[in-house]
Design a protein that fits this description.
By secondary structure, the chain is mainly alpha-helical. The protein contains 16 helices and no strands. The protein has two domains: 134 residues, no CATH class; 190 residues, Methane Monooxygenase Hydroxylase, Chain G, domain 1 (Up-down Bundle). It starts with a helix and ends with a helix.
């Protein structure tokens, strides 16, 4: 909101003070609309807005020159502008701005109004691009890890509810767990959008273009969360059908996996947190042994589900799949989690600058 307000003010000042527009209403509006998109998509949103405005003004001017003023001209210009905008890609902001540009041009019925609107749109979109691509360009790895943390937290909460359901023999808690884990579809869809946006930021932003390697690595890592979410849902479903004699032990196992996920959710970019989560998952997987229904332990289906979740946690933490399988089956070596992709640094960022910490944060760290 602060960035949108600042961009609108700057756009209005440029239009009035630098170009002398008497009513530059669209410059600040264009800046706000262009920035009204999720982080990582604001630059693309500004370009889509510009395309829509140009198409709308052109359609309105042509219709006015051919037919003059009137409701028929308004209808034709609006329909033509929206159709062309749809043919050029069909983004909603492009279609809406094309329609708005055509309506305003025809309603005012003055060619100068269209030109002023185009100038204002260029100013507003230019300011939005400066804000989104240079001044406040989002750090792509941080974008990904924020989305990862949200998905991991939901998985941890779903498994915690599953453990509570097993301990208390509470079907309502089990249903809540399943609902939470089914809702991961939305979280994972948001993560997929963020993965695409982070790639665009790294490829197109002048600030981050030269530092794409950590972004590519983190995108590949984040892609494994789809499998981890599916494994958690499978575990919750099979746990609900577990034999009553197995429930206490299974609750402890599921809660340990939830704790590993919680470790990752709190600090998805920290190597030590990933190592702890991988170690906890490995301990769970090894502790299952060769369980079978005849042993009075976990059923084969539940055992398989637990191992899937544990393996997916270790892979997300950065361990190679072959190393995971060897560590679980052979038990001959411990896991060594590699350093996660480091957040890229700004090209002009100096390593000699001191890092600033808020006073209350320092107090909290000392007390912790």
């Amino acid at each position: 909101m602060v960035q949108g307000t600042a961009a609108a003010t700057v756009a209005w000042l440029i239009a009035t003070r630098a170009l002398g527009h008497h009513e530059p209403f669209f410059a600040p509006i264009a800046a706000v609309i262009a920035l009204n998109a999720p982080l990582g998509e604001r630059g693309l949103n500004a370009l889509r807005l510009l395309v829509g405005v140009v198409v709308g003004i052109a359609a309105g001017e042509v219709a006015t020159l051919a037919l003059g003023a009137g409701f028929g001209t308004l209808a034709l210009a609006t329909f033509s502008a929206m159709t062309i905008a749809r043919a050029l890609g069909g983004a909603r902001v492009t279609v809406a701005q094309a329609a708005a540009g055509a309506i305003l041009t025809v309603a005012v019925a003055d060619g100068e109004a269209g030109i002023n609107r185009l100038g204002d749109a260029l100013i507003g979109a230019g300011v939005a691009l400066f804000f989104s691509q240079l001044l406040f360009s989002p750090e792509p790895v941080a974008l990904l890890r924020r989305a990862e943390a949200a998905a991991l937290a939901d998985m941890a909460r779903g498994l915690e509810l599953t453990a509570q359901s097993l301990e208390r023999d509470d079907p309502d808690a089990g249903e809540s767990a399943l609902d939470r884990l089914r809702g991961l579809r939305d979280r994972l869809a948001e993560l997929g959008r963020t993965r695409r946006a982070s790639e665009r930021v790294a490829r197109r932003s002048a600030v981050w273009r030269s530092q794409r390697v950590p972004v590519v690595r983190e995108r590949e890592n984040a892609g494994h969360l789809d499998l981890l979410g599916g494994s958690c849902l499978l575990l919750a479903r099979t746990a609900a059908a577990a034999d009553p004699s197995q429930r206490d032990r299974l609750a402890t196992t599921v809660r340990e996996l939830a704790g590993a996920l919680d470790e990752l959710a709190n600090e998805p970019g920290d190597r030590e947190a990933r190592q702890r989560a991988a170690d906890r998952a490995l301990t769970v997987a090894r502790g299952l042994g060769d369980a079978s229904p005849g042993d009075g332990l976990l059923s084969a289906a539940v055992t398989f589900s637990v191992r899937m979740v544990a393996a997916d946690i270790m892979v997300f933490a950065g361990v190679d799949e072959d190393a995971v399988e060897a560590a679980v089956r052979e038990g001959a070596h411990e896991l060594d989690v590699p350093d996660p992709p480091s957040a890229p640094r700004l090209p002009f960022e100096s390593r000699r600058w001191p890092s600033f910490r808020w006073p209350w944060r320092r107090r909290r760290e000392r007390s912790g």
